[in-house]
Amino acid sequence: MTTSPAVRALGDLAHQGAHAPAACDCAPPGVLADRPDGTVVRSGPVVAKAHAPDADAPALTARLALAASPALAGILLPPLAVPPTPDGLGQARTLEGRTVTLWPYGVPVDPADPDAAPWEETAVLLARLHRARPPHPLPPMRGPAKAARAVARMRAARARTPGGAAAGGIAPVLAAWRGLPGWARDEAPAPAHRAGFLCHGDLHLGQLVRHPVPDGPWLLIDVDDAGLGDPAWDLARPAAWYAAGLLAPEVWLRFLDAYRAEDGPAVRPDGDPWPELDVPARALTVQTAALAVAKSLAQDRSPDEVEQLMIDACARIACRSAELGAASTS
Amino acid sequence: MFQCPKCHAQMHTYNRNGVQIEQCSGCRGIFLDYGELESLTRMESQWVQQAPPAPPAPQAYPAAPAPAWGAPHQGGHYGGHHRHKSFGRMLFSS
User: A303 and chain B: CB distance < 8 Å anywhere?
Assistant: First the structure.
């Protein structure tokens, strides 16, 4: 990977956060992620993150304050205090117009061993997050916005690569998307009785770390999409994987049962949880399939077997849109 | 390649013992041409005459409610190196 100036600057910031100025033999900083919506660089015990360039600054400030709030201790990884800037003003740092934050390094879930993933711990953290009272005013969680963005990305990829090998996936994904209610497409607020809960907004297995290293408790990271909304959205990605036939029923039940045992409010305490999960899980299925089609088009390849299962699930969702009673508007 | 008349997903063609079967990738509905159902019925009766008694059904998973649009969950659905690797990536991305 070529090292961009932003990555080098983030590495320097992380390194400065790791220890006081002195000669050292620290290992060079390592890039943990470098995507348009976030660049993350680690130097030893400190991680520096440059947030999305188009992030809403007041909303991001409120989300970062949530991670720092004592009310969320033991649930969200708190950021490190920002060290004073060289000019002594102590302002929040920015880099090429992007807000920069510093975090302690935590051990992530081993991507090579998803079967060993902490499904129960994840469920317990989500239940506690959803039960917590918002400590201050917060923006809506960005789950529906991310689903809409994924569909927009697929449409843009189609415009660039019409007739690619993955073009057959576009119609079922769009058909499933059109059948969703407006709130799940980021076109209307969530129904009042489902809104108002603290939500992570982008839960997946990359959003957990053990801190302190190496065997501290699991904590949720990445509050960039967090806020108030329907807590079922945070269960909906594993629910979508299960519904598509990717996540084994016993793993799904471990996750769901642990969430219920911790009194999570997203689903009814007993019985069929799908009345609450249905719409968010449909939306996450569309989001996942839309990104898979967009990537396949960009790479001029067919969707792989797993991606095709998500596209197939969209076709079945489209067949059953009438169940939601959602007026198709586009 | 044609579209499912019910849900408009793509139909895929399979060959089962010389009988062409079109199955919808969406709703899993099956389309048979003229005479194909009779061919299948004929083969089934031959197979039943030859086949040994069926083994007992494998132990089912604990009952987990699923949405109406969910995939039919069948055992052995989750293995396979390729699937494992690709699903592993999906587990860790937005």
Answer: no
